[in-house]
Hints:
The strands form two sheets. Strands 2-1-6 form a three-stranded mixed β-sheet, covered by helices on one side. It has a three-stranded antiparallel β-sheet with strand order 4-3-5, with no helix packed on it. The chain is rod-shaped. It has one domain (2-107): hypothetical protein PF0899 fold, CATH 3.30.2320. Helices cover 27% and strands 31% of the residues. Strand 1, helix 1 and strand 2 (36-42) form a beta-alpha-beta unit. By secondary structure, the chain is α+β, with helices and mostly antiparallel strands.
Amino acid sequence: LKVSLSVGRMTEAIEDALQFAFEALTDRDPLYEGAQLEITMVEPKSRCVECGTVYEHDRFHVSCPECGGFGELIAGKELRIDSIEVDLPDADDADDELDAMRDDASSS
């Protein structure tokens, strides 16, 4: 299992905290053994409503560097699942596991 996220820095989400939570959830079940979380942090970007300039900035300095106008945030607030990759077992392996489960159930 591999999950890829895009997380905007303006969400105030902490990359290490997301990773910790993912590991805490996936470590509980052998089904998720080897699961990976890939996080891409997205820098804030705004477009000036006065002059149209598009610019990157930090959380605290959002005014336009060209004219000092107000910037409308166009990137940096997202929290998006970009992809989920799942490794499916080989069909023969899955059949063998199902047969073993049936044998266990019938012998009980």
